[in-house]
Amino acid sequence: MARKAVTKAKATKTGPATKAAKPTIVKPIYVLNGPNLNLLGLREPEIYGSTSLSDIEKLVANHAKKQGVNVLCLQSNHEGDLVTWIQEARTMAAGLIINAAAYSHTSIAIHDALAMLDIPAVEVHISNVHKREEFRHYSYVSSVVSGVILGLGVKGYTLALDAILADLSK
Ligand code: CA2
Protein backbone atom coordinates (compact mmCIF):
# COMPACT_ATOMS: atom_id res chain seq x y z
CA MET A 1 0.00 0.00 0.00
CA ALA A 2 1.19 3.53 -0.77
CA ARG A 3 2.75 5.49 2.06
CA LYS A 4 0.95 8.78 2.47
CA ALA A 5 3.07 11.93 2.64
CA VAL A 6 0.69 14.35 4.30
CA THR A 7 1.27 17.88 5.47
CA LYS A 8 -1.49 19.23 7.68
CA ALA A 9 -3.14 22.46 6.59
CA LYS A 10 -2.17 25.31 8.91
CA ALA A 11 -4.91 27.01 10.93
CA THR A 12 -4.90 30.79 10.46
CA LYS A 13 -5.56 33.46 13.12
CA THR A 14 -9.01 33.97 11.64
CA GLY A 15 -10.07 30.37 11.92
CA PRO A 16 -9.39 26.80 10.90
CA ALA A 17 -7.84 26.08 7.53
CA THR A 18 -10.37 25.15 4.88
CA LYS A 19 -7.99 23.85 2.22
CA ALA A 20 -5.44 21.09 2.77
CA ALA A 21 -1.86 22.15 2.05
CA LYS A 22 -0.10 20.46 -0.87
CA PRO A 23 1.75 17.41 0.47
CA THR A 24 5.52 17.82 0.69
CA ILE A 25 7.39 14.85 -0.72
CA VAL A 26 10.86 14.94 0.75
CA LYS A 27 12.25 11.60 -0.35
CA PRO A 28 13.23 11.14 -4.01
CA ILE A 29 11.40 9.02 -6.55
CA TYR A 30 13.76 6.26 -7.66
CA VAL A 31 13.97 5.73 -11.44
CA LEU A 32 15.58 2.36 -12.13
CA ASN A 33 16.60 1.17 -15.58
CA GLY A 34 17.83 -2.32 -16.37
CA PRO A 35 20.16 -4.03 -18.81
CA ASN A 36 21.12 -2.49 -22.15
CA LEU A 37 19.04 0.63 -21.62
CA ASN A 38 22.35 2.51 -21.31
CA LEU A 39 22.62 1.98 -25.09
CA LEU A 40 19.29 3.63 -25.90
CA GLY A 41 19.40 5.89 -28.92
CA LEU A 42 22.32 4.05 -30.44
CA ARG A 43 20.50 1.12 -32.09
CA GLU A 44 16.97 0.00 -33.04
CA PRO A 45 15.47 3.54 -33.16
CA GLU A 46 12.40 2.06 -34.90
CA ILE A 47 11.56 0.25 -31.62
CA TYR A 48 12.99 2.50 -28.91
CA GLY A 49 13.25 5.92 -30.59
CA SER A 50 16.38 8.04 -30.73
CA THR A 51 16.36 9.43 -27.19
CA SER A 52 19.34 8.43 -25.03
CA LEU A 53 19.03 7.25 -21.43
CA SER A 54 20.70 10.43 -20.27
CA ASP A 55 18.02 12.45 -22.17
CA ILE A 56 15.27 10.40 -20.48
CA GLU A 57 16.83 11.02 -17.06
CA LYS A 58 16.96 14.78 -17.74
CA LEU A 59 13.36 14.73 -18.95
CA VAL A 60 12.14 13.00 -15.78
CA ALA A 61 14.30 15.16 -13.50
CA ASN A 62 12.94 18.38 -15.08
CA HIS A 63 9.37 17.13 -14.91
CA ALA A 64 9.87 16.22 -11.25
CA LYS A 65 11.52 19.55 -10.42
CA LYS A 66 8.53 21.46 -11.80
CA GLN A 67 6.40 19.60 -9.28
CA GLY A 68 8.78 20.14 -6.41
CA VAL A 69 10.11 16.60 -6.16
CA ASN A 70 13.49 14.99 -6.75
CA VAL A 71 14.40 11.85 -8.64
CA LEU A 72 17.32 9.48 -8.25
CA CYS A 73 18.09 7.85 -11.62
CA LEU A 74 20.07 4.61 -11.63
CA GLN A 75 20.89 2.11 -14.39
CA SER A 76 22.57 -1.27 -14.22
CA ASN A 77 23.19 -4.27 -16.42
CA HIS A 78 23.31 -6.45 -13.27
CA GLU A 79 20.24 -8.02 -11.68
CA GLY A 80 21.70 -7.82 -8.15
CA ASP A 81 22.20 -4.05 -8.40
CA LEU A 82 18.54 -3.61 -9.26
CA VAL A 83 17.51 -5.84 -6.32
CA THR A 84 19.75 -3.83 -3.96
CA TRP A 85 18.30 -0.49 -5.16
CA ILE A 86 14.72 -1.77 -4.83
CA GLN A 87 15.51 -2.86 -1.25
CA GLU A 88 17.06 0.55 -0.56
CA ALA A 89 13.94 2.25 -1.94
CA ARG A 90 11.87 0.68 0.88
CA THR A 91 13.25 3.28 3.27
CA MET A 92 14.88 5.91 1.09
CA ALA A 93 12.31 6.59 -1.66
CA ALA A 94 8.80 8.04 -1.85
CA GLY A 95 8.05 6.02 -4.98
CA LEU A 96 9.72 3.97 -7.67
CA ILE A 97 9.68 3.80 -11.47
CA ILE A 98 11.21 0.69 -12.98
CA ASN A 99 12.04 -0.44 -16.49
CA ALA A 100 13.72 -3.74 -15.67
CA ALA A 101 14.19 -4.32 -19.44
CA ALA A 102 14.86 -8.02 -20.22
CA TYR A 103 14.89 -8.89 -16.48
CA SER A 104 11.15 -8.06 -16.48
CA HIS A 105 10.62 -11.33 -18.33
CA THR A 106 12.99 -13.49 -16.28
CA SER A 107 13.70 -12.20 -12.78
CA ILE A 108 12.00 -13.73 -9.75
CA ALA A 109 14.58 -11.88 -7.59
CA ILE A 110 13.32 -8.51 -8.84
CA HIS A 111 9.71 -9.69 -8.43
CA ASP A 112 10.41 -10.68 -4.79
CA ALA A 113 12.18 -7.39 -3.99
CA LEU A 114 9.31 -5.35 -5.46
CA ALA A 115 6.75 -7.41 -3.54
CA MET A 116 8.31 -6.09 -0.30
CA LEU A 117 7.79 -2.42 -1.22
CA ASP A 118 5.05 -0.40 0.40
CA ILE A 119 5.55 2.71 -1.74
CA PRO A 120 3.88 3.31 -5.12
CA ALA A 121 5.81 1.64 -7.92
CA VAL A 122 5.16 1.84 -11.67
CA GLU A 123 6.60 -0.43 -14.37
CA VAL A 124 7.52 1.26 -17.65
CA HIS A 125 8.33 -0.23 -21.04
CA ILE A 126 9.19 2.07 -23.91
CA SER A 127 7.91 -0.40 -26.52
CA ASN A 128 4.60 -2.24 -26.56
CA VAL A 129 5.96 -5.62 -25.51
CA HIS A 130 2.65 -7.29 -26.46
CA LYS A 131 3.21 -6.44 -30.12
CA ARG A 132 6.61 -8.10 -29.99
CA GLU A 133 7.99 -11.63 -29.46
CA GLU A 134 5.97 -13.90 -27.17
CA PHE A 135 8.81 -14.15 -24.63
CA ARG A 136 8.28 -10.44 -23.88
CA HIS A 137 4.57 -10.84 -23.13
CA TYR A 138 5.00 -11.99 -19.53
CA SER A 139 6.49 -9.69 -16.90
CA TYR A 140 7.44 -10.83 -13.39
CA VAL A 141 7.26 -7.14 -12.43
CA SER A 142 3.63 -6.37 -13.38
CA SER A 143 1.95 -8.33 -10.59
CA VAL A 144 3.89 -6.52 -7.83
CA VAL A 145 3.62 -2.87 -8.92
CA SER A 146 0.81 -0.33 -8.68
CA GLY A 147 0.55 0.07 -12.45
CA VAL A 148 2.16 -0.53 -15.84
CA ILE A 149 2.79 1.90 -18.72
CA LEU A 150 3.95 0.44 -21.99
CA GLY A 151 4.24 1.30 -25.64
CA LEU A 152 4.08 5.07 -25.15
CA GLY A 153 7.78 5.66 -25.76
CA VAL A 154 9.89 7.70 -23.36
CA LYS A 155 6.80 9.67 -22.30
CA GLY A 156 5.98 6.60 -20.20
CA TYR A 157 8.52 7.75 -17.61
CA THR A 158 6.91 11.15 -16.99
CA LEU A 159 3.43 9.58 -17.02
CA ALA A 160 4.67 7.11 -14.40
CA LEU A 161 5.94 10.00 -12.28
CA ASP A 162 2.56 11.75 -12.51
CA ALA A 163 0.79 8.54 -11.48
CA ILE A 164 3.06 8.17 -8.43
CA LEU A 165 2.57 11.80 -7.38
CA ALA A 166 -1.21 11.45 -7.75
CA ASP A 167 -1.07 8.32 -5.60
CA LEU A 168 1.04 10.03 -2.92
CA SER A 169 -1.30 13.01 -2.72
CA LYS A 170 -4.43 10.86 -2.20
O1 CA2 B 1 10.39 -1.61 -24.19
C1 CA2 B 1 11.13 -1.60 -23.21
O2 CA2 B 1 11.34 -0.60 -22.52
C2 CA2 B 1 11.88 -2.87 -22.82
O3 CA2 B 1 11.92 -2.96 -21.42
C3 CA2 B 1 13.28 -2.74 -23.39
C4 CA2 B 1 14.14 -3.99 -23.16
C5 CA2 B 1 13.41 -5.24 -23.62
O4 CA2 B 1 14.17 -6.39 -23.28
C6 CA2 B 1 12.02 -5.35 -23.02
O5 CA2 B 1 11.40 -6.50 -23.56
C7 CA2 B 1 11.20 -4.13 -23.35
C8 CA2 B 1 15.44 -3.94 -23.95
C9 CA2 B 1 16.25 -2.75 -23.78
C10 CA2 B 1 17.33 -2.85 -24.82
O6 CA2 B 1 17.75 -1.56 -25.11
C11 CA2 B 1 18.36 -1.36 -26.29
C12 CA2 B 1 19.09 -0.22 -26.37
C13 CA2 B 1 19.71 0.10 -27.55
C14 CA2 B 1 19.60 -0.73 -28.64
C15 CA2 B 1 18.87 -1.88 -28.54
C16 CA2 B 1 18.25 -2.19 -27.36
Describe the structure.
With 170 residues, this protein is of the alpha/beta class. The protein has five helices and five strands; from the N terminus they run βααβαβαββα. The chain has helices at residues 45-48, 53-66, 79-92, 108-115, 155-168, and strands at residues 29-33, 71-75, 95-99, 121-125, 147-150. Strands 2-1-3-4-5 form a five-stranded parallel sheet, with helices on both faces. β3 (95-99), α4 (108-115) and β4 form a beta-alpha-beta unit. α3 (79-92) packs parallel to α4 (108-115). The chain is globular, with a radius of gyration of 17 Å. Mean pLDDT is 90; it is low at 1-12. Bound molecules: ligand CA2.
| Major sheet strand order | 2-1-3-4-5
The figure for the number of domains is 1
What would you report as the Rg, rounded to the nearest angstrom? 17 Å
Kindly, what is the distance between the CA atoms of the first and last residues, rounded to a whole number of angstroms?
12 Å
CATH architecture: 3-Layer(aba) Sandwich
**Which percent range describes the beta-strand content?**
5-15%
Secondary-structure class:
alpha/beta
Mean pLDDT: 90
Overall 3D shape = globular
Q: Which small-molecule ligands are present, each listed once? A: ligand CA2
Helix content: 25-40%
Low-confidence stretches: 1-12
Write the CATH fold name. Answer: Rossmann fold
Largest sheet: 5 strands, parallel
Number of strands: 5
Instruction: Specify the CATH homologous superfamily.
Output: Dehydroquinase, class II
Broad CATH class: Alpha Beta
Number of helices: 5
String of helices and strands: EHHEHEHEEH
